[in-house]
């Protein structure tokens, strides 16, 4: 299930792109299929090993355009091992809510993005996330769990300020270009999980709803696509913000 809209991001074949906090690699795989030169970045070596295997399998199966490249890189989001302006597009999907020093991580995302490049950041949406926190302490107190709940205004402010030069020149600030919401069908699942116990996967209601989500992911039937279009703007679990780095940066 993709969260970021790559057409909206402006991704084109041959561009160098970073998937920061790639996890299992879902966004990295899609960008690779679109012909990008992809770096999947994460601190989890085991997940990166699996992502690398999938990159190889995709290439061998002929699922990627000629000339597209993909690799993995392990490291720290607070000190990205890349040059200034190295990437045309940067994606950080569902990762900033896990990082205590999120402003430092955002500064790194902005630093490695070239002038004129675009950035997409997705985080849990405020209202669905607040409900999860109210229903269950275990949801956010788990090791490596969520440490904050963002509003759109807060995250826009942090990203635009991170893009300013050291003297605070406003003209160098990142430009916010819009937002969207995704995964409206997923928010009720997590409300159920938080209500019955986040580890209680065998609860009948949780199991039934999980089957619905598997059906959505695997088959994407028209009825669920239609439901998603209605629910995404109302209770979409994820919020996606898009930014552009000024050419003058």
Can you tag this structure with a few keywords?
249 residues, alpha/beta, Rossmann fold, 10 helices, 42% helix, globular
In short:
The chain has ten helices and seven strands.
Detailed description of the structure:
It is an enzyme of class 2 (transferase). Keywords: Methyltransferase, Transferase. GO terms for molecular function: methyltransferase activity. Residues 18-121 form the Methyltransferase type domain. InterPro entries: Methyltransf_11 (IPR013216), SAM-dependent_MTases_sf (IPR029063). With 249 residues, this protein is an alpha/beta fold. It has one domain (6-183, 236-244): Rossmann fold (3-Layer(aba) Sandwich), CATH 3.40.50.150. 42% of the residues lie in helices and 20% in strands. A seven-stranded mixed sheet has the order 3-2-1-4-5-7-6, sandwiched between helices. Strand 2, helix 3 and strand 3 form a beta-alpha-beta unit. Helix 5 (126-135) packs parallel to helix 8 and helix 8 packs antiparallel against helix 9. The longest helix is centred in the first third of the chain and has 16 residues, at 45-60. The model has no long low-confidence stretch (mean pLDDT 94).
């Amino acid at each position: 299930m993709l969260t970021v809209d790559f057409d909206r991001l402006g991704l084109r074949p041959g561009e160098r792109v970073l998937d920061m906090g790639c996890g299992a690699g879902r966004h990295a795989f899609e960008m690779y299929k679109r012909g990008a030169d992809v770096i999947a970045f994460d601190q989890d070596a085991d997940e990166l090993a699996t992502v690398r295997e999938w990159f190889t399998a995709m290439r061998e199966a002929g699922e990627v355009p000629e000339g597209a490249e993909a690799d993995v890189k392990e490291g720290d989001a607070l000190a990205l091992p890349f040059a200034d302006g190295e990437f045309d597009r940067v994606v950080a999907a569902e990762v900033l809510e896990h990082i205590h020093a999120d402003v430092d991580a955002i500064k790194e995302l902005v630093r490695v993005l070239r002038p004129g490049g675009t950035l997409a950041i997705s985080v849990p949406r405020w209202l669905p996330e607040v409900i999860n926190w109210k229903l269950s302490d275990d949801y956010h107190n788990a090791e490596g769990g969520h440490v904050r709940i963002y509003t759109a205004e807060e995250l826009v402010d942090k990203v635009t300020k991170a893009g300013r030069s050291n003297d605070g020149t406003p003209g160098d600030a990142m430009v916010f270009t819009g937002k969207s919401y995704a995964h409206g069908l997923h928010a009720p699942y997590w409300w159920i999980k938080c209500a019955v116990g986040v580890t209680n996967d065998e609860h009948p209601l949780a199991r039934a709803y999980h089957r619905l989500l598997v059906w959505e992911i695997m088959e994407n039937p028209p009825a669920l696509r239609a439901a998603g279009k209605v629910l995404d703007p109302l209770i979409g679990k994820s919020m996606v913000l898009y930014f552009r780095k000024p050419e003058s940066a």
